[in-house]
Design goal:
The chain is an alpha/beta fold. It has 13 helices and five strands. The chain has a five-stranded mixed sheet with strand order 3-2-1-4-5, sandwiched between helices.
Length: 351
C-alpha cells in the first residue's frame, strides 16, 4: 500500500518521488488485511464518483448543490480515514463509524452510474492518495521532529515544503497560486472525486501543523470536460481568489474546463489552477461573446426576412430572440425593436 514505483507515480500525476515513513514489515495476514482496507476506501471513492455523476446530470441547481454538499462532507470523512491509516505506524482498523457510513452509502447508491474523467480504478487512486499523504507526513515530521508532539507550528514556507507533493508534484502550481492556498479569504475547490479528498487531507494537515491563524475555506466541484460543464457547491460574488486542485493533471483537460467555467459561480474572482488561470469576469466576457455572435446571426435573418416582406416569419425570429435574451440575461440590440416597430406600423395585423 505504501510502496513506490515510477509507473504508479506517472499514473497518479506526480512529478516528484514520494517519501515514505519507516514502518515494520507486515505479515501475510496483515498485508491481506491492509489490501482489504484499501479496497474499502476505494469503495468510498466510488461513492463520490456516483455523486459526481448525479450532480452533473441534475438540472435543478438547488438539488445539485445539495448533492455536492453531501459529496463535500463525505470527502472529509474519507480524507480522515486515509489520514488515520497513514498516521498509524502499524496496522490500523478503519473507524467503525466510517465503515457504517460507507456501507449505508454503498447500499443507498447501489446500481447508480459511476463515472470518472480518468479510468484509474478507485483503489488505485486511493493508493496514490495514501502514498501522497505519507509523503506530506514525512516532510512535516522532518520539520517538526514529531507528529505527536511537534516542536513548533509551521510557517508558510515550511508548509509549502511539506505540501510539495500536493501543490507542486500533483497540481503544478506556480508560486502565486500556491500562496493562495494559505491566503485568508481564498476559496479552494477540489475536483470530484480524488481531488476533493486530496484537498481535505492537505487542509487538515495544514490546519493541524501550521500557524496560519485561520481556517482554509474549501468546496467541491464536478467537472465534465467532454460536455464542457462545471457545477460548483457554492457561489460567491465577493470572492477575489479561487484555487482549483485535483489529484491528477494528466493532459489538463479537467482543470482547463474548470478554470474557464467556474467563474460563473465566482464572477469577480481570479481563478488559479496549475494548467490555466482566468481573470475576474472572464467567464462572463466569453459568454457574452457567444450570445452576441448567436444573436447577430439571428438579427441578419430577421432583417432579411423583413426586407423580403416575410413579416410573420420575421416576427417568429424576433420572439425566439426575446426568449434567448431572457434565458441568458443578455439584452437585445436596439435594432430589433426598431425593425419590429416598422413592421407593426405598416402591418398592424401582425401584432
Amino acid at each position: 500500500m505504501f510502496g513506490e514505483s515510477g509507473f504508479e507515480n506517472s499514473l497518479g500525476g506526480s512529478m516528484v518521488s514520494y517519501r515514505k515513513r519507516e514502518r515494520p514489515s507486515l505479515s501475510p495476514e496483515e498485508h491481506e488485511a491492509a489490501n482489504e482496507r484499501l479496497r474499502r476506501l476505494g469503495d468510498g471513492l466510488r461513492f463520490l464518483r456516483k455523486l459526481r455523476t448525479q450532480a452533473l446530470e441534475e438540472p435543478d441547481m438547488e438539488i445539485v448543490r445539495s448533492i455536492l454538499r453531501e459529496a463535500h462532507l463525505f470527502s472529509k470523512e474519507l480524507a480522515n480515514a486515509i489520514l488515520e491509516q497513514s498516521m498509524a505506524i502499524g496496522p490500523e482498523d478503519l473507524d467503525p463509524e466510517f465503515v457504517d457510513t460507507l456501507e449505508r452509502a454503498t447500499e443507498e447508491y447501489r446500481g447508480e452510474d459511476e463515472s470518472s474523467n480518468y479510468s484509474l480504478p478507485p483503489h488505485f487512486s486511493v493508493g496514490n492518495l495514501m502514498r501522497a499523504t505519507d509523503d506530506m507526513l514525512a516532510r512535516i515530521e522532518e520539520k517538526t521532529k514529531s507528529l505527536e508532539k511537534p516542536d513548533h507550528k509551521l510557517g508558510k514556507d515550511e508548509l509549502d515544503y511539506a505540501l510539495t507533493e500536493f501543490l507542486k508534484g500533483t497540481n503544478d502550481l506556480a508560486r502565486e497560486a500556491r500562496e493562495k492556498f494559505f491566503e485568508k479569504g481564498a476559496k479552494i475547490g477540489g475536483v470530484l472525486s480524488g481531488g476533493s479528498v486530496y484537498l481535505e487531507i492537505a487542509k487538515t494537515l495544514t490546519e493541524k501543523y501550521g500557524g496560519l491563524g485561520h481556517d482554509i475555506e474549501t468546496f467541491v466541484l464536478a467537472v465534465d470536460q467532454k460536455k464542457d460543464k462545471v457545477v460548483s457547491e457554492i457561489e460567491d460574488k465577493e470572492a477575489k481568489a479561487v484555487l482549483i486542485v485535483d489529484d491528477v493533471i494528466n493532459k489538463g483537460g479537467t482543470l482547463i474546463a474548470a478554470s474557464r467555467l467556474v467563474g460563473e459561480s465566482f464572477p469577480n474572482a481570479h481563478i488559479y489552477t496549475g494548467v490555466q488561470n482566468d481573470s475576474p469576469g472572464g467567464f462572463r466576457e466569453r459568454a457574452n461573446e457567444v450570445h452576441e455572435s448567436h444573436l447577430f446571426g439571428k438579427f441578419q435573418d430577421f432583417a432579411d426576412l423583413t426586407e423580403e416582406g416575410k413579416y410573420e416569419d420575421a416576427l417568429k425570429i424576433y420572439d425566439e430572440a426575446i426568449r434567448y435574451s431572457k434565458e441568458h440575461s443578455f439584452p437585445l440590440a436596439s435594432g430589433w425593436d426598431k425593425i419590429r416597430s416598422r413592421i407593426l406600423a405598416k402591418h398592424p395585423q401582425n401584432q
